[in-house]
Design goal:
The chain is an all-alpha fold and about 375 residues long. The protein contains 17 helices and no strands. The chain has a domain of about 240 residues.
Length: about 375
């Protein structure tokens, strides 16, 4: 048994070493393509990722640090218990997972677990369905910019949200609670408002930097794989079989980029059809997966279960999307969208703006009235 484990470790080390050497060789062989991929990744981060994600990451971190999450949890506890079998503190994670964007829900769940507000089993369940693309990206970027239809973006978002909630409800029957005990103190406010704000901004800055790093890296990898002929060779290999199944050729070209990086996949899929876009949004891409692994570092995340849930979300959301189209028809073709993929990759989302306003209102409501009145009186004096 020990020999088998040692051989397995050595084999893994050899494989990693070979991949690392090959990657370094490709970087030296294709420096221009690699640099171009980095530039594209940086442009994507500055125009789409940071504007749409950073505010939500800060708000979600502040909600946990300041105790707002616990207060809201008490209000939505009955609904959260009834639908998901989870405590009320998980309710804000579910909400932010739906409106904040891919890493926001996972970061919030990790923060609650590290503070002792939820058990490991509850954390595992949240990671199964609280990792979603937000409305700012789906409606604003994908719908308005790539497809040229806000209506299509809204339907795509509704399909993703519905699939996420269905998976969340189902997890209560497949992932059973253990005898773990919550170790958090009974006090809600653990830090002052000022300290909570500073910690939230600092933590979110590290998180957005990590997310952008993975996006830039995978953008460079995609360019190198295209330049050296690996992606074209794989596409040529799988094309005959997929064409027989009725998959459009344009969708086949966008398939591998969609598996690796969701935004690049959606840009390419925008030329081929809404079905592949929906699949890409549900799957998230390996770039998002690594972002989740980074923000949950130090926690024993079951990666195989996480990836299985991403695959289920991709299939389920696509099925819901096709069903919704039967009741809400679109003027554009499902298999060949007509959006302008050369447009800017970021558009302001009214849904995202409204969500931020709501959380600002919750923040104000959470402040003790006495503190507010004291500050007002001092100002008047």
């Amino acid at each position: 048994m020990k020999n088998h484990t040692a051989i397995k470790r050595k084999s893994k080390l050899y494989i990693i070493s070979i991949v690392t050497i090959c990657t370094a060789a490709l970087l030296l062989k294709f420096p221009t393509e690699s640099a171009e991929g980095v530039k594209e990744g940086l442009q994507l981060c500055t125009t789409a990722v940071i504007p749409s994600l950073f505010p939500f990451m800060t708000v979600s971190a502040f909600a946990v640090q300041s105790g707002i999450s616990a207060r809201l949890g008490r209000i939505i506890e009955p609904v959260c218990r009834f639908l998901f079998g989870l405590p009320g503190s998980c309710g804000t994670v579910i909400i932010m997972g739906l409106i904040g964007g891919f890493p926001v829900g996972a970061r919030m769940a990790a923060a609650l677990y590290k503070q002792g507000d939820i058990t490991k089993t509850q954390f595992d369940r949240l990671l199964c369905f609280c990792v979603n693309a937000g409305p700012a990206f789906i409606i604003g970027t994908v719908g308005v910019v790539l497809i040229g239809s806000m209506k299509a973006g809204i339907i795509l978002y509704a399909a993703q949200a519905a699939a996420s909630l269905i998976i969340g409800i189902c997890t209560r029957f497949f992932i059973h609670e253990t005898d773990e005990k919550i170790t958090a103190s009974s006090k809600i406010n653990r830090t002052s408002i000022a300290d909570s704000f500073v910690l939230s901004v600092s933590d979110s800055s590290k998180g957005i930097l990590s997310a952008c790093a993975y996006i830039v890296l995978f953008s460079a990898i995609l360019n190198i794989l295209n330049a050296c002929g690996i992606i074209p060779a794989i596409v040529d290999f799988i094309t005959p079989s997929l064409l027989k199944l009725g998959v459009p050729y344009a969708s086949i070209n966008a398939l591998l980029p969609a598996i690796l990086e969701v935004t690049e996949g959606c840009v390419l899929a925008g030329k081929s059809g809404l079905i592949l876009i929906c699949l890409a949004l549900g799957w998230g891409g390996f770039s998002v997966h690594f972002q989740i692994y980074a923000c949950t570092s130090g926690i024993d995340l079951k990666k195989s279960r996480f990836m299985l849930c991403r695959a289920i979300q991709a299939i389920l959301s696509t099925a819901i999307f096709i069903l919704l189209l039967k009741f809400i028809p679109l003027d554009i073709a499902v298999s060949a969208s007509t959006g302008n993929t050369d447009a800017a990759l970021f558009s302001v989302s009214p849904v995202a703006s409204i969500a931020l306003l709501i959380f600002c209102m919750v923040f104000l409501i959470s402040l003790p009235n006495k503190t507010i009145f004291k500050k007002v009186n001092r100002t008047q004096q």
